[in-house]
Amino acid sequence: MIKKIDITTKDVAEQVLRVQIPSYKVEADMINFYDIPPLKDSAASLQRSEETFCGYYVGEELAGVISYEIETSILTICRMIVHPDFFRKGIASALLHSLFESSLNVKKMVVSTGRDNEPAKKLYKKHGFHEVRDVELSHDVFITRLQKMMD
């Protein structure tokens, strides 16, 4: 089940953090870069976030989260996280579909991921995103920006 979650609630922020940290550790290992900002989040910093959060639940357990911001008809996916215990079960695809099917009235969706994070890039491309450009974050560390035009 996917539902909007209230990140301002401490318990919810802690649940998100329990998914976020292991998820981003996998990406950090994959791209060999450990200074990813979400790895430095705390429950308090999540509670202050201006992003909209939606969670994917398996029973009562939070297994995945997508967060986004909308500005001038452009939706930016800020976080796409799935706990490693739930990898390859279609959760990220389900979270993306929930965005596509919601009536958010946006013209474009954008997202960034580590250039060497092939599973994430493959996921986004499978759902109609295309690569726009690579951006160097620090010496020899790149992210790939992807976008999808909405009908």
TrEMBL record:
Signal peptide positions on this chain: none
Highest taxon, organism lineage: Bacteria
Residue intervals of the N-acetyltransferase domain: 3-151
Pfam family membership, one: Acetyltransf_1
Record SUPFAM superfamilies: Acyl-CoA N-acyltransferases (Nat) (SSF55729)
Annotated protein name in UniProt: GNAT family N-acetyltransferase
Species for this entry: Chengkuizengella axinellae
Source species taxonomy: Bacteria, Bacillati, Bacillota, Bacilli, Bacillales
